[in-house]
Amino acid sequence: MKPRFTALLTLLVVALLGGCASQPPLRQAKDVDLARYMGTWYVIGHVPYFAEKGDVATADEYRLKPDGDIAVTYHYRKGFDAPEKTWAGKAWLPDPADTAHWKVQLVWPLRSDYVIVDLAPDYRSVLIGLPSRKLMWIMARERQLPAAEYQRLLAVAKAEGFPVDQVRKVPQRCEDLGQAGFEQP
């Protein structure tokens, strides 16, 4: 599939799943400092779905633009020996006072919610989810996350109603391939 078509399908599914929320609102991190949040976040674990299937060494990069929007770049590889690929998009705050709830758009006109559910005080790890609770991501500033912090974020995700039994770690290093709990490309 061509990358643009795949991106379009991904956003369509995410938008549809995001619109199915019938549960109480997600817990949200308090007082997210957007300037501090910007930068690279490695995807440590997620609920896999078709658009990210087989991706390794994945990361989201956020850059605050002068107009207040957020430039979003998704970095990934289809194998550790494959070249890096990217998707570029944008995000914005529907309510500028609520810095934990974003709208994300990778392909026009499709949009999805992005909720910062839990953010470590040192901005080293984060749990992101959709209000529908169908998809979630655990991310970190480094390619690895201490086991205790990973388990803490899984416990938060479970308490918020995410399907943690479906969560798989994303291989960030070659040695992660084939290990228990990791998604297999």
TrEMBL record:
Descriptive protein name: Outer membrane lipoprotein Blc
Secretion signal span: 1-29
Family statement drawn from the similarity comment of this UniProt entry: Belongs to the calycin superfamily. Lipocalin family.
Annotated InterPro entries: Calycin, Lipocalin_ApoD, Lipocalin_Blc-like_dom, Lipocalin_CS, Lipocln_cytosolic_FA-bd_dom
Protein's UniProt keywords contain Glycosyltransferase: no
Family annotation (SUPFAM superfamilies): Lipocalins
Function statement: Involved in the storage or transport of lipids necessary for membrane maintenance under stressful conditions. Displays a binding preference for lysophospholipids.
CDD domains named in the record: lipocalin_Blc-like
PROSITE patterns reported in the protein's UniProt record: LIPOCALIN, PROKAR_LIPOPROTEIN
Domain (Lipocalin/cytosolic fatty-acid binding) ranges: 32-172
Record note on quaternary structure: Homodimer.
Compartments, as annotated in UniProt: Cell outer membrane
UniProt keyword terms in alphabetical order: Cell outer membrane, Lipid-binding, Lipoprotein, Membrane, Signal
